[in-house]
Specification:
Jelly Rolls, Arc Repressor Mutant, subunit A, six-stranded antiparallel sheet, four-stranded antiparallel sheet, 10 helices
Length: 255
């Protein structure tokens, strides 16, 4: 993959508008860290969109300024991306781990402007990681209408904490306390915004972390269970098989 340009923590004035005519083969990944207007539609902060060059690209600031990270690159062929990530092109989506994505783009920018002799190889690996990460834990565009909900930002922050800290003993009361809501209202609004119950999300976060550990380390099943917040190894194994379809051991063997 060949990077054309990259920008991190860029701040543009309120009258800023970016326009580029369709240009097949060029990929532009944009992470808006403030409100943004994409092709005439408003989207909240933490909107991620990957343009594939098949359509005109237009985005602009909303309010006082636009804060964003972006990277423009060429892929040698379509399969180069499709083989590593399932990304919906030209569709603005909210993402639940924008902090990680932003930091990764910042690291790519650092390497891109460095004189490191191995920077091209390093950048290639980081872009692939970026694309895989960008395809994870997206929020459906329809749910973006809920961004006007006054508790939306705090709920996004809570969800990130849940997925980053699967070892914690999350329960409804502790999660509701984090965002200062009553138990019943919290459960209602969480499902309305994210499409799943809060406890289902807790379990999903644990299983996703378990899959990551099983794929990338040699930790025992007992260790994986403990690292994901399970007190009972048997319970972990049953829950993993129910959700993933195979046992933790079977999952590791297939990787």
């Amino acid at each position: 993959m060949n990077i054309r340009s990259v920008g991190w923590n860029c701040i543009y004035d309120s009258d800023y508008t970016f326009f580029q005519q369709r240009k097949k083969g060029g990929i532009l990944l944009l992470l808006a860290r403030s409100e943004v207007c994409v092709c005439g539609e408003w989207f909240p902060a933490n909107t991620l969109v990957v343009f594939d060059g098949s359509e005109d690209i237009v985005y602009s600031a909303v309010g006082e300024s636009l804060v964003c990270d972006w990277i423009c690159f060429d892929a040698e062929n379509d399969s180069e991306i499709s083989d590593i990530a399932d990304i919906p092109y030209n569709l603005p989506l909210l993402h639940t781990d924008c902090e990680f994505i932003s930091q990764l783009i910042g690291n790519i920018a650092t390497e891109f402007y460095s004189t490191n002799s191995r920077r091209i190889k390093i950048i290639d690996f980081m872009i692939k990681t970026l694309l895989i990460k960008a395809s994870e834990r997206k929020i459906n565009r329809d749910i973006m209408q809920s961004a006007s909900e006054p508790h939306y930002s705090s709920l996004i922050g809570l969800r990130e904490r849940i997925y980053r800290n699967p070892q914690m003993k999350w329960n409804v009361d502790s999660m509701a306390a984090v965002v200062n809501m009553s138990r019943s209202y919290f459960q209602h609004i969480y499902r309305e915004i994210f499409g799943v119950s809060c406890m289902t999300d807790v379990i999903n976060g644990k299983i996703e972390k378990a899959k990551e550990i099983l794929s990338e380390t040699g930790c025992t099943i007992s260790q994986v269970s403990a690292m994901c917040g399970y007190d009972n190894e048997e319970h972990f194994m049953r829950q993993f098989k129910k959700i993933v379809g195979v046992t933790p051991t079977g999952y590791r063997k297939n990787k």
